[in-house]
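task queued by scheduler; priority normal; single chain, no ligands, no partner chains; default sampling; output format set to structure tokens
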Amino acid sequence: MSRIKIHKEGRRIILANLILWVAVAIAIWLWGDKDTTKIVITSVALFMSVFILYFFRIPERTPNLDESLVISPADGKVVNVREIEETEYFNGPCRQISVFLSFFNVHITWFPVGGLVSYYKYHPGKYLFAFLPKSSVKNEHTTVVVKTNNGAEVMFRQIAGIVARRIVCYADQGDDAVQASEAGFIKFGSRLDIFVPMDAEILVKIGDKVRGQLSALAKLN
């Protein structure tokens, strides 16, 4: 059995969580007067500690590398596939695919394509429910555009949700992006929007479950 790997973004949170729940459990067992309360609190402490470890896990995967494909940058469920007028970078029509991440999904963000990071911007904002379409522009988010070796440009956004209050993005303008390598992390529930050219072939539909590094969202022309 392979050892569970924990993402670096979770180390401080895991340590703080462990200290908190150990302190609570000790206090309950020392000064609590009901055995039922002691058992319940200890069970909650154990569950929360295991869940935090699970949330920050790093999956062992062999990436699906293909320059012609846009690979999902996150685990989750496809909640939106549509044509839109994108106004931040492309300033024109493109196709948008949205992937919603639940608490139980891996929350690492991976580069959907390889190439040159031609644009990066952080946007402060609100913390609406991430599954709402308007969260794409109203919520706190980052925008990253990667220009592939074939000249196509693919944009993706990390979007904070009502619980997710911490977006980490490792990309910066001018960086070399390697397809399926880590691009960032979003903590506790979120959404990824991926924008591809109009002539790209969409390979998923609303309701599909996708896996980061593995599932092909679109095929570039």
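post-processing summary
- The chain has a mean pLDDT of 86.
- The first strand starts at residue 5 and ends at 6.
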